[in-house]
Known about the structure:
With 142 residues, the protein is of the alpha/beta class. The protein has two helices and six strands. The strands form two sheets. It has a four-stranded parallel sheet, with helices on one face. It has a two-stranded antiparallel sheet with strand order 5-6. The two termini are 16 Å apart.
Amino acid sequence: xxxxxxxxxxxxxxxxxxxxxxxxxxxxxxxxxxxxxxxxxxxxxxxxxxxxxxxxxxxxxxxxxxxxxxxxxxxxxxxxxxxxxxxxxxxxxxxxxxxxxxxxxxxxxxxxxxxxxxxxxxxxxxxxxxxxxxxxxxxxxx
Length: 142
């Protein structure tokens, strides 16, 4: 079983303010540790469930957030930018299962602490307009 994990930071547990999600924010180092911990938990679960390969896309900002030295060494990591498929770079290689770790509510979502809309480079996929990060699900294999 091949598993793909796309990891954002705004939906990670205890990440609740821009100080956590902004590279210049005073709480950003903590948020990076928390993000890496949640990705590692997803990795452990995937491998315990029988995954033979797990690819992780560091998908917040420019893709330099996960603490590489603390990431489960069984994972393959996609990091940095630019990436033609943005947060879902690598998905086109085909996977059996996709995890979205640390994803957040879209702008206007009640009770979601950090929200925003997707403003990436992908404009249209499979005949539909990509308006928000959650719409990237159209990139997942059918």
